[in-house]
Amino acid sequence: MLNYKGYRTGSQKKTIFGDFDIAEFLSSYSTLFRIMPEREAMVEMGGYDDGWEDVSKNYRESKSWQCEECKVSLLQNKRLLHTHHINGVKRDNKLSNLKALCLDCHRKQPKHDYMRVTHSDMQTIVRLRREQSLLNKSNWSDAFRMADKSVEGILFHYQKSGQQCPYVGYELTNEKNEVVGELELAWPAFKTGIAINHEIIEKANKLGWKVRSVGEEIRLMSNTKTWS
């Protein structure tokens, strides 16, 4: 489980609890968990064969270090690519039971809610997807597949209410066309969006955008208040 600021092991639990800030929390832990995770995404569950590390490395190499789900290439970021057991049996290393998945796609597999991905790692994956022209499409299927899991509920809400599909991982630029941040979801035509990092929200609003935090949007969804 998470040990936010040493809450589980420290002696200042009341102080940490009282000072808890959702924006600060989400800037480090991007996923809004349906259940609390039991371990980090970078530490896979035990029960593997002794030679699993070699099996995993060889399999990922055979796939050219590319995620088989979203197709992002992680050749320069190999630690962000896992080898997934499709049937969940970690000793079943038949090639037909293996699948190379980036951290984001791996945690979206059934019964993988225990995994978490830091906001920094998620931003790297989204940036690489964008650079590799994997985020060009703007449709709901791609949005759900490519977006940070923390905004999954927001996407469901907007889709159900018939709203326009947002851009995922939108680069925010200033007057000089310099990239100053990234929005998890964006509707450029309306200059509106959703972001996790509070500093990015402030920058966006100063540039004339209307950007909400994930927490703010979730609170407002009960009132069905949408951008368009």
Task: Please explain how this structure is put together.
With 228 residues, the chain is an alpha+beta fold. It folds into two domains: 31-134, no CATH class; 137-221, no CATH class. 33% of the residues lie in helices and 15% in strands. The protein has helices at residues 13-18, 22-28, 52-62, 103-107, 119-131, 140-146, 152-160, 198-206, 214-221, and strands spanning 81-85, 98-102, 167-173, 179-187, 192-195, 210-213. The strands form two sheets. Strands 3-4-5-6 form a four-stranded mixed beta sheet, with helices on both faces. The N and C termini lie far apart (38 Å).
Task: Produce a short descriptive summary.
It contains nine helices and six strands; from the N terminus they run αααββααααβββαβα.
